[in-house]
TrEMBL record, chain A:
Pfam family, one: Sigma70_r4_2
Protein name: Sigma-70 family RNA polymerase sigma factor
Domain RNA polymerase sigma factor 70 region 4 type: 109-158
Domain spans labelled RNA polymerase sigma-70 region: 15-82
Coiled coil: none
UniProtKB/TrEMBL annotation, chain B:
Record organism: Actinoallomurus vinaceus
Name the UniProt record assigns to this protein: PASTA domain-containing protein
Biased composition (Low complexity): 292-312
Annotated region described as Disordered, given as residue ranges: 288-312
Keywords, sorted A to Z: Membrane, Transmembrane, Transmembrane helix
Transmembrane segments: 51-70
Source superkingdom: Bacteria
C-alpha cells in the first residue's frame, strides 16, 4: 500500500473513468434513484478501501461492476447501508429518476427478456448494455472465461426459446434494430 | 448469433443519460467524501495476521476435529507453531468449541456459526481447513436480523427462512445462511449479523418498524419530535442521533447530522432507523412530509439522506 496521496490519486483516476459507467450500470438495474445513489456510493467506498485489489487499466471497470452487482444484490436483499456519503447525489438522483420515469420497454422482446432468470438476464445485459466481452464478464462474476462462455451460450439459447415461445422471430426485430442503428449512425 | 442488439435496445438508460442526471458538484462531493474516510484497518489487520504464524492450541484442536468429522481435509494447513503465551500449560483444559460447524448437503458445504464473537481469523482458519478462501465477518446488527446474512460476495447461494426476519428489500425472505459449492476455491466474503453489545452502533439494520425492532407497530411518520420521543420513552428507547431533512429534501444547513440540542420539539419526524441497542436515529425537519402508508414493503421514498457512518 502506497502513501495516502498515491492511494487518493489512483482512486480519483478510477473514479473519473468509471463513475458514469458504474452509475449507468446501477441505474439500469434499479428504479429508485435513492437506491442507485446508495449503491454507487457504497461501490466506490469499497473501491477506496480495497484499492490495492483493483486490477489495472481496463479491468478496473468490470471489477467495479462486480462490486456494484454485489452491493445491489445485498440492497435488494434488504441490506441498507448507512453511509455519510453522497447526500447531494441522493437528492439529485432521487429527483432525476422520478422525472425520467424509467421507460420500461414493452413488447415481445422485453417480455422474453423478463422471462429469463436473473442470472441469465444479468449475463445478457453485461453484453448488451455494458458491452463487455467474456474476459470482462469473468471479472464481474468472479468466474473463469470458460464458465462465462458456457453460461452465455445457454442464456442466449434460453432467450431465443423465450422469443420463440412468444411467437417472435428474432430476425425481423434484428433487422429493425440494425436499421435503427444505421439511422442513428 | 446476435440477440445482443435486441437486448441493447432494452437498456432503460444509457451511460450518457445517467451521467446527465448528476451535477459535477455531486460527483465531486461523493469522491471527496469517500477519500476523506479512514483507510480501512481491515487491510492492515489482515497483513499483520498473515505474519503471525500458528494458532492457539485449542483452535487447532477444534480444526482437527472438524476435519475428522466432515472429510479428511488437509490438516497440513494447521502447522501449529508453538505459541506459548496463548494458553497456560496446566490446569483443566477447556475445550474450545469450533467457531464454525460444517456439514455437507449434496454438492454443498453448509456452514453454521457456533461462536458469533470469535476472532475472524479463527473462521478463516477453519475455512482454510476445508480448502476454502473465505472471509467470514460478523457485524453488530439490529435485533431482528441477528444471525442473518448481511452481505456476501462470490457465488454463494443463500439459504432463506421465510418470515424469520423482515428486510426492507427482501421482504420476508430472510437470508439465514449460505451454501457453498464443495470445492469452491475463489476468494469470497460473507458477513453475518450478530447481536450488538450495549452502546455498540449497528452496522446494518432492518427497517425500524419490522417485527422484533424497537419501533414495531408504532405510527410515527409525520408526528412531531416531542410526540415520537415521548412514545419512544415508554419503550425505553432513546434518540442519540438526528438527521435533518428540509422541505425540498435538502439537508442544508445540517449536512452532517443535526445536533440533538438544535432539534426543535415541534419539528416533524420523517423516518427512523435502528441505531444501537434501544437507540434509534430520527430523520427530522421543520416541514411535514407526505408519507406513503406504512407497510407496503417499500422503503419510504423521501427518507434516507444518510449521514450515519457505518460502525466498522
Amino acid at each position: 500500500m502506497g502513501p495516502l496521496d498515491e492511494r487518493r490519486r489512483r482512486f480519483e483516476e478510477i473514479y473519473a473513468a468509471c463513475h458514469d459507467p458504474v452509475l449507468g450500470y446501477v441505474l439500469r438495474r434499479t428504479e429508485d434513484g435513492h437506491d442507485a445513489a446508495d449503491v454507487l456510493a457504497e461501490t466506490f467506498l469499497v473501491a477506496w478501501r480495497r484499492i490495492d485489489e483493483i486490477p489495472a487499466g481496463d479491468r478496473a471497470r468490470p471489477w467495479l461492476f462486480g462490486v456494484a452487482r454485489r452491493v445491489l444484490a445485498n440492497h435488494h436483499r434488504g441490506e441498507r447501508r448507512r453511509t455519510a456519503l453522497g447526500d447531494r447525489l441522493r437528492t439529485e438522483l432521487g429527483d432525476a429518476v422520478r422525472a425520467a420515469d424509467h421507460h420500461t420497454e414493452s413488447g415481445v422482446i422485453a417480455e422474453a427478456f423478463r422471462g429469463l432468470s436473473d442470472d441469465d438476464r444479468e449475463l445478457l445485459s453485461l453484453v448488451g448494455w455494458e458491452g463487455l466481452d467474456t474476459g470482462q464478464i469473468a471479472t464481474v462474476l468472479g468466474c473463469s472465461r470458460n464458465a462465462v462462455r458456457i453460461r452465455l451460450h445457454r442464456a442466449r439459447k434460453r432467450f431465443a426459446r423465450e422469443l420463440k415461445n412468444r411467437g417472435a422471430n428474432a430476425e425481423p426485430h434484428l433487422r429493425r434494430a440494425r436499421i435503427a442503428e444505421e439511422e442513428h449512425a | 448469433m446476435n440477440h445482443d442488439k435486441l437486448i441493447r435496445r432494452l437498456a432503460p438508460i444509457t451511460d450518457e443519460e445517467a451521467a446527465r442526471m448528476v451535477s459535477p458538484q455531486a460527483k465531486t462531493e461523493l469522491s471527496e467524501q469517500i477519500t476523506a474516510t479512514a483507510v480501512p484497518a481491515r487491510h492492515r489487520a489482515r497483513r499483520r495476521r498473515g505474519l503471525v504464524v500458528g494458532l492457539p492450541l485449542a483452535a487447532a484442536a477444534a480444526t482437527a476435529a472438524i476435519a475428522v468429522a466432515v472429510t479428511s481435509a488437509g490438516s497440513g494447513a494447521t502447522h501449529a507453531t508453538p505459541t506459548p503465551s496463548q494458553r497456560p500449560g496446566s490446569g483443566p483444559v477447556k475445550v474450545q468449541l469450533a467457531a464454525l460447524s460444517f456439514s455437507t448437503q449434496g454438492k454443498y458445504l453448509v456452514v453454521k456459526v457456533n461462536d458469533p464473537l470469535a476472532d475472524p481469523a479463527r473462521y478463516r482458519k477453519e475455512f482454510a481447513a476445508h480448502g476454502m478462501d473465505i472471509d467470514l465477518k460478523l457485524v453488530p446488527v439490529s435485533p431482528s436480523i441477528v444471525g442473518t446474512v448481511v452481505m456476501s460476495e462470490g457465488s454463494m447461494k443463500m439459504i432463506t427462512a421465510r418470515g424469520r426476519c423482515h428486510t426492507g428489500g427482501g421482504g420476508a425472505a430472510c437470508p439465514v445462511g449460505v451454501k457453498i459449492p464443495l470445492g469452491y476455491k475463489e476468494h469470497a466474503q460473507v458477513v453475518f449479523g450478530r447481536a450488538a453489545r450495549p452502546g455498540e452502533q449497528y452496522s446494518s439494520s432492518a427497517p425500524v418498524e419490522a417485527p422484533g425492532e424497537v419501533m414495531h407497530g408504532m405510527t410515527y411518520r409525520g408526528r412531531t419530535v416531542a410526540e415520537v420521543v415521548a412514545m419512544l420513552k415508554k419503550r425505553h428507547v432513546t434518540v442519540p442521533e438526528y438527521r435533518y431533512e428540509g422541505a425540498d429534501g435538502d439537508n442544508a444547513p445540517y449536512r452532517n447530522g443535526v445536533p440533538p440540542e438544535k432539534v426543535q420539539p415541534g419539528w416533524f419526524v420523517h423516518d427512523a432507523s435502528p441505531w444501537a441497542q434501544n437507540q434509534v436515529l430520527l430523520f427530522v425537519g421543520p416541514t411535514r412530509q407526505t408519507h406513503a402508508p406504512a407497510g407496503n414493503g417499500k422503503p419510504p421514498a423521501p427518507g434516507f439522506p444518510f449521514a450515519t457512518p457505518t460502525a466498522r
